[in-house]
Amino acid sequence: MIPKAELHCHTEGAMSPALVRRLGERYGVDTSALFDAAGHYIWHDFTSFLAAYDGAAGLLRKPEDYRDHAYDYFTAMAAEGCLYGEFFASADHAAAMGYGYVDMIEALDAGMADAEAETGIVGRITLTCIRHLGPEQAVVTARLLERHPHPRVTGFGMGGDERIHHPRDFAPAFDIARGAGMRITSHAGELDGPESVRATLDHLKPERIGHGVRAIEDPALVERLAEEEIVLEVCPGSNLALSLYPSAAEHPILRLRDAGVKVTISSDDPPFFHTSIGAEYSTVQSAFALSDEDMTAFTRTSLDAAFVDPETHAHLLARAGEMTAEG
After folding, report:
1. pTM attached to this predicted model
2. Which residues form the catalytic set?
3. Which domains does the chain possess?
């Protein structure tokens, strides 16, 4: 089995329909409006996607729901040959449910720890601010990292609607997070074009970019990404579902890689896009007729860019080598 790693997955966006229905029953909430006749989430554009996302997230009402979700998701990833995964976690969603950041993190930590004990998969958390909630709320989120350090939380990023606010508005929040020892990523270059990637690089100074695929529209930006060794967290299934590209074969992941950009493969919000980390690897391999060695190279890039300490990094590379040798 090809070893895999995931750098870009939203905690709430990874909620399976089965989990949402189970939580709906637990809390007496009718969830039928969230799903179509086939049992898939209902949405048709990014705005309706966010509405469906928030509807599902609203059922994570207690910390133990986060624990169960993390355990279920990470064990499922491990079954597909995934060695490592990062969850983007939103303190704002937890606050909306009436409990604190620390409770959410400890619950996610418990679920990841149980999954690791059972399968060996390693998990980390990147705290994210939500762009459309504004720069001031982003600062509030970043301050949590100063007040409540946790070994499982190793990164800070930004998700949400790329079309709202400018990256420069969020520089204070990212400076706070960086000062708290966090490694930095941010969404850019999916809904918005290459200029959003450039502005994010200029003002937020990340080492990774979430998505970033529309950089391909600007050759000078592609060259900059390669020269600065910025890692792109590419989520092909998400890009196709949002109609950025008409088919997997026309996705720019290989053109970016061949131009020297460090690209990785992730699933973003897998049940919303009818995918998984295993399906994402399979889609890329089939679309471009890549070898297992080519696919393992994506994983090594992910592990090199993972927000982990050197000892964990070495452990993960060793495990990847063992899986490759086993075939």
Report:
1. 0.95
2. 190
3. 4-18+65-326 (3.20.20.140)
